[in-house]
Design goal:
Blueprint lengths: L6 H5 L5 H17 L1 E4 L5 H16 L4 E2 L18 E4 L7 H21 L5 E9 L5 E4 L9 E8 L12 E7 L2 E7 L6 E5 L4 E4 L6 E9 L9
Antiparallel strand pairs: 1-9, 2-3, 3-4, 4-11, 5-10, 6-9, 6-11, 7-8, 7-10
Length: 226
């Protein structure tokens, strides 16, 4: 079993050069490439516990179809986006989700110190892509708000294999050309990227695909329309 990539624990060990190199690699990738991939963001046990909570909420009917657009332009259009979501309520978190949230908070503090991003808050939701669904190419910035600075997706798919689908496709601009990065949605992996820069899509899922998706913001939730 791989060791968990623990932001708080790594930062507290002043003489751990190998650990600091891992942190630096994440910050450098985000600064230079506009995205970074972190495997074992949580341990397998912690990741599976998050998946259990997601599935419990699904069985209880707490998920709803995800939409596109904002305000009076909001709509459900499964020809563009087919996932179902459940927003995480910070006032009523399971133990598994508390562990996840603590990691996200530690990561946000790390990026504020290293990349000077002035991030203040974050929001996230469970996401389920049933077999046969996808999310077409898009940018994460909402039309009425530009407060989403970093997008992140944490994957909860044990035993994922090629052919299962649901890969995240990131479109990187390189001079006048474009490069596509395909990210496999394997258990415990987190991908984070610049919300305002990288267009992306979720490829067709051939079996259920689970994740926790979120955004780091430069304003506190509730102070602006999100």
């Amino acid at each position: 079993m791989k060791a968990k990539f623990d932001f708080e624990a790594i930062e507290s060990i002043a003489d751990n050069n190998e650990a600091f190199n891992k942190l630096d690699a994440v910050a450098d990738s985000l600064a230079i490439n506009s995205f970074a991939i972190i495997d074992s963001f949580l341990s397998d046990q912690e990741s599976l516990a998050c998946l259990d909570v997601l599935k419990e909420n699904k069985e209880q009917g707490n998920f709803k179809n995800a939409g596109i657009g904002t305000s009076n332009q909001y709509q459900i259009d499964k020809s563009i986006r087919g996932d179902e979501i459940k927003w995480l309520d910070e006032s009523n978190l399971s133990e598994a989700n508390q562990v996840y949230m603590s990691q996200i908070q530690a990561m946000m503090r790390f990026f504020n110190r290293t990349l000077f991003l002035s991030l203040k808050d974050f929001e996230c939701h469970f996401a389920h892509y049933p077999a046969g669904t996808f999310y077409k190419r898009h940018l994460d910035l909402l039309k009425l708000s530009d407060h989403r600075k970093l997008s992140f997706v944490f994957y909860l798919n044990p035993n994922w294999q090629k052919g299962d689908g649901g890969e995240l496709l990131l479109y990187l601009k390189e001079n006048e050309s474009e490069k596509t990065i395909s990210v496999d949605p394997i258990l415990g992996r987190l991908v984070i990227f610049r919300s305002e820069l990288l267009e992306h899509e979720v490829a067709l899922a051939n079996k259920s695909r689970y994740s926790i998706t979120g955004w780091m913001l430069d304003q506190y939730k509730g102070t602006t329309f999100l």
